[in-house]
């Protein structure tokens, strides 16, 4: 039976007298609330007031009984088998730097890139060289282009002993990538966020021999590349990529795979070239002009971009069997080929 004692100061516990007669009570000295406190608790409270703390020796006593010392628990890097480089280099936000530090994602990149021993690979933005070393150990040649020269000593040290890596410092958007990476067949990169979209768009025709792209980009960009018409994500880069390639793989990537940790999600997207339409440069100008004023009608957008006058644009749109008030996002990629031809 459990006794419930109410909070009344004049209520005392009644005890049954012992059979052996009256004996001296061994109860602990009552505290202010008239309730008894054990001697152990009283000593603990006294020590606490005096600022005395006893060491916690639970594990020591346990190990002493077992006759051995407790081994050090492996840290997270050792448990996961990760070989993350120490980040003594500060990432530069203005360059869109988020260094890949999770070795576990490298296997996914290798699978999507379908790496083979005779591959010639271009990497843009090697950063700390985590992906670069992985590629160099599996393919014939790696051409790496890095914008930040301050990473030079770190990259040189990490890539030592790998003669199949050629490192070039410069702006990948300004360099002639066909000259920088002769014979390249695959683009495998963790692309800096601020150049991902223009670099992909430029590589479609600036590297005509490129067969396969495997790129790490923001999740928003990855969704945009193969978005469907009449959706919010559908835009100029969607049309250009889908005119040239077909998607072969997609893999979301956690923010924890990068240092510093980005504020947006990322994804790996892989796509293979299906062909390059003739006069692609002109088609690109038409597509970019069509989406240059997204909220405008297609004819108005083409006129505002300076590509043609409104009457000519409306006549070309009519040849496609579309209404004059159609917008760019309503046209499928093949219809832009017809539009470019009708605008000649």
Cα-atom Rg, whole angstroms?
A: 35 Å
Tell me, briefly, the overall form: elongated
User: Span between N and C termini?
Assistant: 98 Å
CATH class of the largest domain: Alpha Beta
What's the number of structural domains? 2
In the sheet with the most strands, the strands line up as 4-3-2-5-6-9-7
Strand element count:
9
CATH superfamily of the largest domain: Vaccinia Virus protein VP39
**SSE string, helix = H, strand = E?**
HHHEHEHEHEHEHEHHEEEHHHH
Strand content: 5-15%
CATH topology of the largest domain: Rossmann fold
Major β-sheet profile: 7 strands, mixed
Average predicted local confidence, pLDDT: 81
Structural class: alpha/beta
CATH architecture of the largest domain: 3-Layer(aba) Sandwich
Tally of helical segments = 14
Low-confidence parts lasting 5 or more residues at pLDDT below 50?
1-15, 56-65, 68-87
Share of residues in helices = 25-40%
């Amino acid at each position: 039976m459990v006794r419930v004692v109410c909070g009344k100061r004049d209520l005392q516990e009644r005890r049954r007298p012992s059979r052996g007669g009256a004996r001296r009570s061994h109860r602990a000295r009552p505290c202010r609330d008239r309730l008894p406190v054990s001697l152990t608790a009283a000593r603990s409270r006294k020590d606490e007031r005096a600022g005395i703390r006893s060491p916690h020796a639970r594990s020591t006593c346990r190990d002493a009984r077992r006759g051995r010392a407790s081994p050090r628990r492996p840290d997270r890097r050792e448990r996961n088998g990760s070989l993350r480089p120490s980040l003594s280099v500060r990432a530069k936000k203005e360059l869109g730097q988020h260094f890949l530090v999770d070795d576990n994602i490298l296997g996914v990149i290798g699978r999507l890139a379908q790496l083979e021993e005779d591959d010639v690979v271009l990497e843009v933005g090697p950063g700390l060289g985590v992906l670069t070393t992985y590629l160099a150990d599996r393919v014939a040649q790696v051409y790496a282009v890095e914008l930040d020269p301050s990473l030079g000593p770190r990259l040189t040290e990490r890539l030592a002993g790998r003669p199949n890596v050629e490192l070039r410092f410069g702006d990948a958007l300004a360099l002639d990538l066909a000259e920088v990476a002769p014979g390249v067949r695959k683009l495998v990169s963790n692309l800096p966020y601020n150049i991902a979209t223009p670099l992909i768009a430029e590589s479609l025709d600036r590297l005509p021999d490129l067969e396969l792209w495997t790129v790490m980009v923001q999740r928003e960009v990855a969704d945009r590349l193969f978005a469907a018409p009449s959706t919010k994500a559908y835009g100029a880069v969607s049309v250009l990529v889908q005119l040239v390639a077909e998607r072969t793989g997609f893999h979301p990537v956690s923010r924890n795979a990068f240092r510093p940790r980005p504020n947006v999600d990322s994804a790996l997207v892989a796509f293979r070239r299906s062909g390059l339409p003739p006069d692609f440069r002109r088609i690109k100008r038409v597509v970019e002009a069509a989406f240059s004023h997204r909220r405008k009608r297609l004819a108005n957008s083409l006129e505002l971009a300076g590509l043609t006058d409104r009457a000519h644009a409306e006549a070309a749109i009519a040849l496609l069997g579309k209404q004059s008030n159609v917008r760019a996002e309503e046209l499928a990629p093949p219809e832009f080929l017809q539009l470019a031809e009708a605008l000649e």
